[in-house]
Structure formats: C-alpha cells, structure tokens
Write a structure and sequence with these properties.
By secondary structure, the chain is of the alpha/beta class. Helix content is 43%, strand content 23%. Strands 3, 4, 5, 6, 7, 8, 9, 10, 11 and 12 form a ten-stranded mixed beta sheet that branches. Strands 1-2 form a two-stranded antiparallel sheet. A hairpin with a 4-residue loop joins β1 and β2. α1 packs across α3, α1 packs across α4 and α2 crosses α3. It is globular. The termini are far apart. InterPro entries: LysR_HTH_N, LysR_subst-bd, WH-like_DNA-bd_sf, WH_DNA-bd_sf. Belongs to the LysR transcriptional regulatory family. This is Transcriptional regulator, LysR family. Keywords: DNA-binding, Transcription, Transcription regulation.
Length: 313
C-alpha cells in the first residue's frame, strides 16, 4: 500500500494559519498568495482524509483534531530546521543565517553599539533580529521562530540553556532636584511607591525592578502604564513620577536632553542579568557559546565599567 506523507510546506501553511488565525496574514508570513496557502491546506486535508479547519467568511476555526495535528506539525518543522542547524554547525562557526530575538529594553540600547563590531568579527554571519516582549520572545524560541534570544534573567522561559553575558545595574530616575536630599545611592525604602512608574505587563524589567526593591506593596501601589522606557522617561521628565532604568539605557543616552537625574539602586539584588538563551539540546550550542563570548567582549569595550556576570547556566 502506498503511503502519502504531508510535505513540510503543507505543515508550514497549517502552523502559520494556527499562529495568525487569518488566511491572508498566514499567507504573508509564508511569502505565498492566499490562494496558494488555501490550496495547500485543502491538499493536506484530502491527503489525510480529515477536516482540519472549518472555514467561514468571518472565522477560521480549527477542529479538535486540527489543533492536535498543528501542534505535532510545529514539532516536525522544528526537527526539520534542526537538521539544517546540524549541517551548519558542522561547518564554519557563526556562518549563515541566525535568527535572534531581543527584548525591547535591550534592543535599542545595546544593538546599535555592538552590531558593527559583531559584523566585523563574523562577516559571514547573517543575523536576523526579532524584537518582542520577554514572554513573546520565549514563545517564539520554543515555536522555532527564532534560534536564540537575548534577554534579561531571572525569567521563566521554559526548558532552555543559557550563558550570562553581564550585569546591568538598575538606577532610580527622577526629575532634577526632586531627590537632592538623598545620598548618592537610593535604597528601596526611599522610593515613594505612589509615584513609581513601571512598564506594563509583558516586560520582564517590571518584575526585575520590583524584585530588586523587595517591597511587596510596590506591586499593588506602583503605576504600571509605560509601554516603553522612552515613554517612562517622558513621563518622569514631565514630573509625573519616578521610575527604574537599566544602566545600559542610560549609557546609551536615554536621558540626554532631559531634566532627569539618576542614581544607582542600593539593594540585595540591584541588577538584571543579560543572557543569551536557546532551546536545550540545540545542535548549535557551541555556536551560541561563541556568540555569547563575542557579545561579552564587545560589551566590555563599548560600555564601561563592566560588571561581570557569574557564568553559564
């Protein structure tokens, strides 16, 4: 008896439709026309003899079996991608395409200063960047949309391996002159919880800031309304409150042309750990260690003084 197996392309169409919930957007993500994607899914359904997706004018609804098959298809696609990764890892290091996720509280402050040196050191590396909040970046990693993620730990990102790159100290930022009576470093008990502005949910920096302060009441009292560090800085500059900023952002000039002062936070855990993470068991683990070493060396040259990280996890 002849067995007809689904193609990887058909599985890619199915997974893309599950991710986007819309035929047009799914087709755009696969770089094909909507009719091509729809025809590929019909061929897949005909091949396996079941309906995977209920189609209406307004809604794309997966059948229970369609949901199970799409989850399995995601794992099959990830395994197929790792075949390519194994071949690449056996060749020249840091050569070819690499997809890296980066969180928004790192990307605009670190990447412009390190990417030119990274390109100079590894000219054959084609680095594709994807900026997402921490939760979305971890999801993209496990779905196979990215190969590794540059983020801040501690954060629960599932079954991962990681290398710590460096420590990024947190600073208390406030309108100029407002905290003139305080010392050169600010302790958590000196923070007015009613004036504290934090990033909205989905950004790990909010959790790092609260953990660094170790004051449980801050979570309830703090105003979490900023969509980005730039937004928080604008609010502080307009006298609306105070916030916590990473040293990386300050070094990159986030407070330039503002009327904001910043002083280091003095607490038991006053920093976040910038790390490179990837799926545990990845065939490219040696490459990721090499990339992490390169990023750390570049950071040491570009950002001074450096607070060294503790090592690999």
């Amino acid at each position: 008896m002849t067995t007809y197996l689904p193609t990887l392309k058909q599985l890619q169409y199915l997974v893309s439709l599950k991710d986007h919930g819309h035929f047009g957007r799914a087709a755009d993500a696969c770089f094909v026309t909507q009719s091509t994607l729809s025809a590929g899914l019909r061929e897949l359904e005909s091949l396996i003899g079941v309906t995977l997706v209920e189609r209406t004018r307004r809604v794309v609804r997966f059948t229970p079996l369609g949901l199970r098959i799409s989850e399995k298809a995601q794992r099959v696609l990830r395994e197929a991608e790792e075949l390519s990764d194994m071949a690449r890892a056996a060749g020249k290091p840091l050569c070819g395409e690499l997809r890296m996720g980066v969180i928004p509280t790192i990307a605009p402050f670190l990447l412009p200063r390190i990417l030119p040196d990274l390109r100079a050191e590894w000219p054959e590396l084609k680095l594709f960047l994807r900026e997402e909040t921490t939760n979305a970046a971890c999801d993209s990693l496990h779905r196979g949309h990215v190969d590794c993620v540059l983020l801040a730990l501690p954060y629960h990102c599932g079954d991962i391996a990681s290398v710590d790159l460096f420590e990024d100290r947190l600073y208390v930022a406030f309108p100029q002159g407002e905290q003139a009576h305080l010392p050169d470093v600010i302790t958590p008990d000196q923070i007015d919880e009613k004036r504290l502005l934090l990033l909205e949910d989905g950004h790990c920096l909010k959790d790092h800031a609260l953990a660094a302060c170790n004051r449980p009441e801050l979570r309830a009292e703090a105003t979490m309304m900023g969509t980005s560090l730039h937004t928080l800085v604008q609010m502080v500059d307009n006298g609306l409150g105070i916030t916590l900023l990473p040293k990386m952002a300050i070094d990159a000039g986030l407070l330039d042309n503002t009327h904001i002062d910043a002083r280091p936070l003095a607490s038991q855990h006053p920093s976040r750990t910038i790390s490179l993470v990837w799926r545990k068991g990845s065939p490219c683990e040696k490459e990721f260690h090499l990339l992490a070493e390169t990023l750390t060396n570049i950071y040491q040259k570009k950002f001074k003084p450096l607070e060294a990280a503790s090592g690999a996890a």
